[in-house]
Amino acid sequence: MAYHPLDESTVIPFVKARPAMAKVFARFDRLVVQEVGDGNLNLVFIVQNEANPEESIILKQALPFLRVAGDSWPLTRERMRYETQALLKHNALAPGLAPLVYDFDEEMSLVIMEHLRDHEIMRKGLVGRNRYPHFADHISTFLVNVLFFTSDLYLTGPEKKQLQATFVNEHLRKLQEDFVYTNPYMDSEENKWNPLIDDRVQAVRADKTLKIAMAEMKEAYMNHSEALIHADLHTGSIMLNDQDTRVIDPEFAFFGPMAYDIGAVLQNIILNYLSHYGHTPDQNERAAYQAYLLDMVRDIWNSFARKFDETWRNNNRGELVPEKYWDFPGGQDAFAEYRRRYIQRLLQETAGHGGVKFLRRMMGIVSVWDLTSIADLEKRAVAERLAIQIGKRWVLERKSIASIDDLIGIVSEETSAVPI
Fold it and tell me: What's the pLDDT score for residue 420?
């Protein structure tokens, strides 16, 4: 079938014609469809059996342009193949932490997957001050399993390079290189920001020390091919409830720096922390939820570091530092020290990539709903100014970060004098 964008009138006939859907739907005469895509890139439909609402799927189709910018910004449809490959890999390495894939049509650039009907987008849940008791455990497990088992710490050289060759993803990588690391910090027509923070935006653009540091982080993003990363792992790419967590939307997936994914998760939680200066007027209620979010950040990193070290210690199969390399008196102590330094470096790079992502959200093409949903621009600007200052410090002070409490301390220091 030649590619054409689906709509609410053509989705159901398409689904009926797919043999794989017989495993999902007992009957096809009562199917209904709803277009729910609110992202920047794709069409997203829910198809459900009215006679049995438990029978439902998500159909996601790539458009040949950047949806947030319109058809004047062409974009390859191949991203849906990358997303499907990544979802299958995520299900293999971190079962139960990604939606199941039911079907894929490369010509139509679409994937049909599990409908997470009992889950919500994490970003909206956090704005609503919801609590997720298992999230830190779940997301740290996802990060460890996907990052470690696709890296040189576990794979042989040929195994990693063969896998890496299937995740080139050059077009969406270019998009991130431009929209995260470059365009927001110079004149570029797609940039937008709250006019009340214009002075902060111009100061970032003229800060030579900061721009050198951000260029260093861009170089790492472009060239540090450590593991298969999601590359867009914000709280809008996570669906969850109080018992279950699923990572969605890995269309940007490629082999890049591990710390990029970790930094994205932690930075988004801190952005939500800042958004409550606009969303939660009661100071006691706000302080309690913000303390919960900082504890979540701490728990995610500490769980990640502990699990990563344990997984590496028990699965040192790769060719970077094989077991025989440490076969000498004191070798296991040396191996432990090497692992400690490796994980310490990941934390410092988490600060660097996370800091850049703070800044791009304040002055680039795509902000975050946590902040744009604050109607009062002055209240929104309070959070945005803090995000810029925290982001700058995470980038500039990254090499001196020794623990997750150092990163959290920067947040606490910058927010200690908020007058509301």
Answer: 63
Question: Does the pLDDT of residue 68 top 70, yes or no?
Answer: no
Q: Examine the pLDDT at 260 and tell me if it is beyond 60.
A: yes
Flag whether pLDDT at 70 surpasses 80. Answer: no
Q: How many residues does the chain have?
A: 420
- CA distances (Å), 247 to each of 10, 91, 100, 243, in order? 28, 10, 11, 14
Rounded Cα–Cα distance for residues 411 and 353 (Å): 16
Give the position of tokens 């910018």. 69
Give the model confidence (pLDDT) of 158-201 as tens digits: 999 999 999 999 999 999 999 999 999 999 999 999 999 999 99
Task: Please tell me the distance from the alpha carbon of residue 124 to that of residue 234, in angstroms, as a whole number.
Answer: 12
Give the side-chain half-sphere CA count within 13 A for 188: 19
User: Minimal CA–CA distance to 345: which of 291, 375, 305?
Assistant: 305
Which pTM was predicted? 0.95
For the CA atoms of 352, 354, 360, 362, what is the dihedral angle to 10 degrees? -120
User: Whole-angstrom Cα distance, residue 74 to residue 70?
Assistant: 8
C-alpha–C-alpha distance, residues 344 and 348, integer Å = 6
Residues 6 or more apart whose Cβ sits within 8 Å of residue 265? 139, 143, 233, 234, 235, 300
Q: Are 185 and 193 in contact, with CB atoms under 8 Å apart?
A: no
